UniProtKB/TrEMBL annotation:
Matching SUPFAM superfamilies: ARM repeat (SSF48371), Protein kinase-like (PK-like) (SSF56112)
Species for this entry: Urochloa decumbens
Name of a matching Pfam family: Pkinase
CDD domains the record matches: PK_SCY1_like
The protein's name: Protein kinase domain-containing protein
Amino acid sequence: MALNMKTLTQAFAKASAVIEKTVSTTVQEVTGPRPLQDFELLDQVGSGGPGLAWRIYTARPRDGAPSAPYPVVSVWVLDKRALAEARARAGLSKAAEDAFLDLVRADAARLVRLRHPGVLHVVQALDETKAAMAMATEPVFASVSNALGCLDNVGKVPKELKGMEMGLLEIKHGLLQVAETLDFLHNNAHLAHRAISPETVFITSSGSWKLGGFGFALSVDQATGGLTASQQFHYSDYDVEDTALPLQPSLNYTAPELVRSGDSKVGSACDMFSFGCLAYHLIARRPLLDCHNNVKMYMNALTYLTSEAFSNIPSDLVSDLQRMLSVDAVSRPSAMAFTGSSFFRDDTRLRALRFLDHLLERDNMQKTEFLKALSDMWKDFDSRVLRYKVLPPLCAELRNMVMQPMILPMVLTIAESQDKADFELSTLPALVPVFTSASGETLLLLVKHADLIINKAAQEHLISHVLPMLVRAYDDNDPRLQEEVLRRTVPLSRQLDIKLLKQAVLPRVHGLALKTTVAAVRVNALRCLGDLVPSLDKEGILGILETVKRCTAVDHSAPTLMCTLGVANAIYKQCGVEFAAEYVVPLIFPLLTAHQLNVQQFAKYMLFVKDITRLKRSAV
């Protein structure tokens, strides 16, 4: 029988494809969804989505993984097996589990399609295996639900969430961002979210409030303003805690037209009711409708809502909030109308934050005037607002060389309150280009804050970015820079190994001591050499003695002589009496005749020589 090569080739190709798919599927089941393969999970930062089912982790790209637009991302993980166990414990059907997973898939798919600054940015789309689902987004701080103290599905609670309280200014700014996103959804994307709640609003690492949780979203008919596939939710008449598999939005935030059966007038206004409930919860620090998904409790709470319920709400928000919470959907304001409320409009501090939101779009003259005003507002901003609302746009603006002298002091001031990990993640990347290009007054400012930078930067960043900047300061001709960098040398030396210290730093300190014509620079250089003695070996210390000898040969001024005595004492304490008697006393003794020493200074010199001589004799 003749062999058909074409048929054989096709058979081989088909078999190869089957094998490749089988291997790929097997590998995926072992290693997990694609985001878990491409990113290394670090700490869990929070939870979110319906029932807070998603666990959200900080993650960084693995070696060889596709490049990401952020140095770190958030990887969202949903454990299907844990979900199945929770479903079984709750006595729910497998169909309910499948329906919930379909909601999660719909949410993830919608997030990928929606492109807006107020919608969570997906870095890597949803992928799933039999055991888990995962996707990667821009870095997230937490869900608003987490920020309000609900920490369900969070294993080890991050210290940032423990006892966290948001001030009114931060809440205002966040609500304004959500309102603008809702305006986009309603008027551009023609969508009704239908599930606005603390579980579906997220705070990013840069402090922005963004929407997620689009699993219940439906299109809005542009002609009628109603939902194209309107459907009501069906809640129970008794208390139900269905957080294991929430197949409907939380009743505490759901508009009445989505609850009442037979209500045909359902449109994007349902989101404004939910948004009103969210705003109330954030400002009053308690939910308006705490009804445990019991529709009777919900209707009673709405029916008997009194003005007393708004006693904790700022007076300039009450009327707008009451309109948003109206049972009549037509009476509710649009999202854009809500942004015009005096609650937002009359707040000067909020206007400042809004200007910062769009700082990159302003010209330098506008920025200069604003930053002058901002410097007077610092006392009015709490630490969270400074860190999450003010710092990110200022860091982004550091690329503007013209504005650097105004912005850099503010960035460095805010950075003082950051811990090391936060500084390295959010502030250092913006400072690195400044380290490289800084000169003149900008370099002087950075050197003055070098202690802050040295203490908060990891050694790898210290060596690759901070040390080269300080070396430029050593080599600069400006005496102010030379003095400042000498004052910061000792903290720097504690972070460097002796080889690098002797190679990059010590020769420059010697050079400043010997070559400068400015007395203050020489004094600081000699002090610095004395402070470096404990970090050096015998060879390094002998080098210091040689430099001191050369300095005192040409400069007998009292400050130089007293700094020399300080170096001598440091060497004696470090190396002992034998070393001091052999190498230090021969240097000090001739200086006793210097007429620049006053009586007290001469006495200190004599005391040092006598002490060494006495101790040397005792040792013999």
